[in-house]
RNA sequence: GCCGGAGUGGCGAAACGGUAUACGCGGCGGACUCAAAAUCCGCUGGGGGCAACCUCGUGAGGGUUCAAAUCCCUCCUCCGGCACCA
């Protein structure tokens, strides 16, 4: 009988489902709970290998925890709002709801074929009003707490997606979805006040040290971007725009005496008024227009020239009393600090370049230790610490100390963050409506809670020009003001889809609750998530937003904890070699198989190993792998080929190897069953069995699934060897013990095969609920050990002795060993280092 | 430029300061077979030697240590993130 996954797998999937083995309920005592969660997928149409890897890792963790006696919450759902659905409507004329639901049906079937142990009763889709109504309620509560607000500002705009974007969704100046260059537009939009939590979100990262990947922590720290500095006011020579001073933020107050001019952002509200007062309005206006038109990307590109125009106005350096010119400069950003910087060319590279270009004075006010800088000959700004000079009373003060002293004398200490508020409104259809009403008399008013959900109408006209689909809808916006009852207009923007993913992990604990976002006792019992698994691409998007929402919900009284995800595992990408034709671009592996481009016959070029993607045509369809090898092989391969956090290179031969291994296990069980009673006792096999259990335990603890599988391969090889020893097979009981251990330990990785083999072995119940095996330390212990003997740190031989042999025993054996003896003969042993049951190092002189 | 990570056989990779290369892939050889596939067994870092064995070897160079792939310093290369953030 041959291993046939196609017969085995659907059969056991049916059994699991019928016996409801993966369904869990909330119980009062939660100490054995384990909440395992994977980042839920966007229902794009098909599962890809990245999903298979992500969910195979999660499933191993969930199944292992279950066998260890934990009550495991392991849910799955759909991040169902988003632009691709809307684009499908435009391209193919399907309604986004229909497109999304069709995709969910297909992808759910794909996941079920892979045998993941989800509690499917908890499945949710964020596009359902039963889901997003709670998000709308939360939005209203955040509005009432001033955590959601509307403001006009320059915002990121993607012309292709025809909507605004949050800063986190701009990657290298391009849209995170379509990678179109992002424009800056001045628009009034909705924001979440995530900056109110900047300090807490930053400090919270310390507690995640060692539990989250250091890379994610570093990325979030950098994204929040805390800088300590000073706020300093520079009085204006002539008041402008009702202001008598310009405020700047600096991290180098110690260089204040060297500020020889000021630079302000083109968007700065004082830019034009100052130019008017300074008599250079026309030139400044033209410069502002040109700079804004160029766009933020061009303006802030790496090699962009620093450019500016003098306003003609001046302000007073508070330290020197000098009147210094005010420039509008392209490199100054309105969003950071106060949009104005004191320019210290001697000690800031940007100011230095600007000063050299426009012939502005350079004054050295910090001298490096043991050197004297001359402004005339400097080729770059000196940005490091030193001793203050040309700074009046402060001369001779170390610059670090000077920071505090100058701040105290001329300004006040200020902490600035790079993090900006989360722009969450979107001018698109397929999202949750923002539950707000615009009333001519009352202003912006939240919808009544009793009116929620504000349903997304099905009959909007998607696509077309001008404004969002909801804005063009004939009736959606028509409403009465919840406050005064007068005629009012609904907000027609929808929410960023990252809003849905910021709390879905909370909804899983009570997915059918109709009275609130979730039940408090469910949340108290299950949250926080014990193990989160997902891609690193969400390091500063989803993972930061979810931490923010958790704190908001805590402050609104819903939750009692700060961090949603106790541990995070960020899995690497699934990659594969690419192929291309010099003329026709990327080719599928099948097209490239002949070595010639099917279109033009030119030789195929083999490219780098890159993440699987549609555009590079190097994807492998999980359906194909399941169809040819079965789900267990697919799962085992993605777990074995690399440790989870590293990128994995797809290798067809490696997949076959995994299938070969599973077949080997299959045949091993058949051979073991066919074995007669009796046989020669083999303590070595027992030892190997118990050692393997111990090794797999350690590997599971650290998520080293690749080495856990390797250990099981070794044990499998050892059982094969013990079946055909020179003195006949080992004792049946010992072989049985080893084989049962293999089936149990392998079951989280290859659950279908192991379920089948477990039943063949007459195992009790289902293997997925069987107790995880325990090793016997006594049986795992080696009786005799080959001690490594080193002389002066070099391996010179091995001596086999009892494992508990003393240092003196090993040394005596070593000195008597013909291979080792010559290295110590005639020398004095000045030191001897002994590691019990392992090694002896003799230092001979 | 700054931050994070990684450089180990032909390839994917292993080794919580202690036998470098486990396990898998590929390759070579053998058994089984009329033959092939499948399967099973063995070998497989470089150099030297008939051999036992010797010697070199974890990106480069230094250091700490009885002992370094592992810890420290300097540098090189690659990957990821951020990037005119004052």
Number of discrete helical segments: 27
Main sheet properties: 7 strands, mixed
Helix content: 25-40%
Query: How much beta, percentage-wise?
Result: 15-25%
Number of strands: 33
Query: Which overall shape is indicated by the principal axes computed on the Cα atoms?
Result: globular
What are the low-pLDDT stretches, counting only 5+ consecutive residues below 50? Answer: none
Q: What's the N-to-C terminus distance? A: 65 Å
Radius of gyration: 34 Å
pLDDT averaged residue by residue: 93
List keywords for this structure.
845 residues; alpha+beta; 27 helices; 36% helix; RNA-binding
Give a written overview of the molecule.
Helix content is 36%, strand content 21%. Strands 8, 9, 10, 11, 12, 13 and 16 form a seven-stranded mixed beta sheet that branches. A four-stranded parallel beta sheet has the order 2-1-24-25, covered by helices on one side. It has a four-stranded antiparallel beta sheet with strand order 4-3-7-17. The longest helix has 23 residues, at 652-674. It starts with a helix and ends with a strand. The structure holds one RNA strand of 86 nucleotides.
